[in-house]
Specification:
Blueprint (H helix, E strand, L loop, with lengths): L1 E5 L4 H12 L3 E5 L3 H10 L4 E3 L7 H11 L6 E4 L14 H29 L2 E6 L13 H23 L4 E6 L8 H5 L10 H13 L4 E2 L3 H12 L2 H15 L3
Parallel strand pairs: 1-2, 1-4, 2-3, 4-5, 5-6, 6-7
Helix pairs in contact: 1-7, 3-4, 4-5
């Protein structure tokens, strides 16, 4: 068994590598920070291939694909991504475009490659890491980030139905966690009043549900409850509530 994990240098990606290695999976891990990847490799007991890559560019994505084209693997996890906090008008456009490139374009390119690869093999699992943000009507003060994660959720849902209709043994899942205790918060410049889920436990739960074929994976009772309430609330009310919650994050 072998798995590919992007964004594996820290946080959820690194913990997914730990969980899968414990399950007996060999790994291909990628991120920009080669030193972090090598440190993780030394920690794990199964075979680990380190491939440094900047997936925030199309060239980086296609170069990574070339490096894995002769590899056999059973599970692919698109985890690389980051967030930005602030009013839409105040955020630096280039930083937002960089986020769109990593959160959307790289996921799109790699997901297409993984679907085609697994279809050629007749089976396989893909896990796209989104966020509970991708299930909400919008994210004031994190508008672009929420939009990128909504894209990942929508893309994964659409692919899921195409595969189901063909009775394919290729499965796709999308992880939509709430706050998780990782480096994401410091990069995005936010703090959460809601206690974050443990990264390792989230990784365990996500992988278990992915391998069982679940489409939308929402760890934590509170986030599931919030998702249900959000679906019932009128959009404008949901946005007002979201703004109040988001505004508290700016105290980071």
């Amino acid at each position: 068994m072998k798995a590919i994990i992007t964004g594996a240098s820290s946080g959820l990606g690194a913990d997914m590598a730990r969980v899968l290695s414990k399950m007996g999976y060999d790994l291909i891990i990628t991120a920009r920070r080669e030193d972090r990847l090598n440190a993780l490799k030394e920690e794990l007991k199964t075979n680990v291939t380190v491939i440094p890559a900047d997936l925030g560019t199309e060239e980086g994505c296609y170069n990574f694909i070339k490096k894995i084209e002769n590899e056999d693997f059973d599970l692919a996890i698109n985890n690389a991504g980051f967030g930005l906090f602030g009013e839409f008008s105040s955020l630096e456009t280039q930083k937002e475009l960089n986020m769109i490139d990593l959160n959307i374009k790289s996921v799109h390119i790699l997901t297409k490659h993984f679907v085609r690869y697994f279809e050629s093999r007749g089976k396989g699992n893909i896990l796209n890491v989104a966020s509970s943000a991708g299930l909400m009507p919008g994210g004031p003060l994190m508008a672009t980030y929420y939009a990128t994660k909504a894209y990942v959720v929508s893309l994964s849902r659409g692919i899921y139905e195409e595969l189901r209709k063909k009775k394919s043994k290729v499965k796709i899942s999308v992880l939509c966690p709430g706050p998780v205790d990782t480096e994401f918060n410091s990069v995005a410049g936010v703090s959460f009043s809601l206690k974050g889920l443990g990264s390792y436990k989230t990784a365990e739960y996500a992988i278990k549900k992915t391998l069982s074929g679940k489409l939308i994976i929402i760890p934590g009772v509170s986030i599931k409850f919030a998702y249900i309430l959000n679906r019932l609330a009128p959009t404008k009310l949901a946005l007002k509530i979201a703004y109040k919650i988001q505004n508290k994050k700016g105290d980071a």
